[in-house]
Specification:
181 residues, 4 helices
Length: 181
Amino acid sequence: MEPARNIELKARLHNLAAARIIAQRVATEYLGVQQQTDTYFYCPQGRLKLREIVDYGPRPNEPPQRLAQLISYDRPDELNAKQSDYQIVEITDPARAVALKREMGIRVVVAKRREIFLHDNVRIHLDEVTQLGTFLEFEAVLGLQVNAAAGHTQLAKLQQEFGIEPADLLATSYSDMLQAK
């Protein structure tokens, strides 16, 4: 199975409310709010995590969906927009999620509230991460219509639109940041 690819950029966010207004203005679609718990496992290459999601969706009156995904990804730790290769496997049996946690060795657990907007093929995440603060993340999903160069261009435009300063850019994942605390 070929990995999927995206170009991603992560930054510290100083004003969540202002970022939400910009996201609402530039969004082509609102995907709603999720509570995500990412359990990172020890692995020899890249990163491997179990993501457990309570998806509240874009309509607050609907009951939340519960999902679990095993996500493996590999990307460099760089400040600027970078390519990430990833694979996602849906976990439909809750017992498998429990077994993964028991058997794989937990490195760190990241809990966050994520509000998700879509700007064409770019996912805009407004993240409130427990013990770390607020962050903004862009993920330009690559494919037949969008190559890496186009993804970098999209993120550069959004970085400017959101007023992200170079000093706010982050090279590492939330898991690395939590472990460094």
